[in-house]
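Lab notebook, bench 4. Still working through the backlog of constructs that have no structural model yet. Next entry is a single chain of 371 residues. Request: give me the structure tokens for it.
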Amino acid sequence: MSGVYIHIPFCKSKCPYCDFYSYPKGDKEKAEYVDALVDEIRSKRRVATFVPHSFKADSLYLGGGTPSVLSGEALFRIITAAREQFLTDENAEITVECNPNSDIEGILPHLKKAGVNRISLGMQSCVEKERRLLGRASDKARIMQVIDLFRKSGIDNISLDIMLGIPCQTKESLQETLNFIKETGVPHVSAYILKIEENTHFYKNRDKYDFPDEDSVCDLYKQCSDFLTQNGYEHYEISNFAKKGFESRHNTKYWLLEDYLGIGPGAHSFVDGKRFYFESDTEKFISGSPPIYDGDGGDAEEFIMLSLRLKKGLDIDELCERYGESYLSPIKKKAPLLAEKGLINFDGNALSLTESGMLLSNSIIAEFIYF
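Model written out:
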């Protein structure tokens, strides 16, 4: 089955690290955008160029930006339209990204009524100093309060985002965040290493912040991985940890090269081997701008790269069946050497990164796709 991603480009304020297409905006443009978005979802008028057939999915993901800055009524309209148009599975995974500082109390009844069953909370850190540096307004008590609100409503599938490599972050401060995760008992954690992207506040002011060095960030990543795996989470993807049965079904589609349809400014799609996207411009989306073709996707290099992000790794028999045996020789030549160094697991067919290898994933993947 396929997945559907819907982009909400609005946020309360722009975080200093964020390079996603998002920005603060008033209620008038939000209303115009929701109208245009719901119209496109119901009609498929623009995406029909690339998806002429019926498109059915078993996952729906509202990301941003901050979807929770919209009203509960607006979120209900969007989700209901998408469910009616795309979702056929009664057990479909329906995720909404939320900021703990949003009016969760106000939107929660609408999320429940719309059938939302998974929440991704942008915590980043529970340490007050780090949260201030990241532009996050809510405190640890509010985060816990929001988690309790969702649970009392019957939504137990909750993911927390955390960030590694925050300015001034130490092993002790990270441990405070990890202990908080253990205390909450949430079943999913996404742990991202901070990357200083151009056109962000952090990039423009990078000399003013005390970012941990590369070795320190590696130590933080290992600390995070070790703690979570020792406390019942499986490290199922380079940046993601889940208790059994709580892996993100939607995001896993990206790594398995399954079809997904993205709607909204900046949203990307991969359907029937074709990639296309909507331009990152809300005004153009509202005025009816069509998606842009971005070439064919799903080649062998992409299959190798995405497979190796997952704990289960690369199935070489499947690689050969899909793309032929041209990649077989370099893999069998280089894999044993990398296995000796403790960077990969290799049994002659299945190939996966070790915990140490995940820190060097880009370099290891390059060994298998550039020859």
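Notes after review: The chain is about 40% helix and 20% strand. The mean pLDDT is 93. Flag for follow-up if needed.
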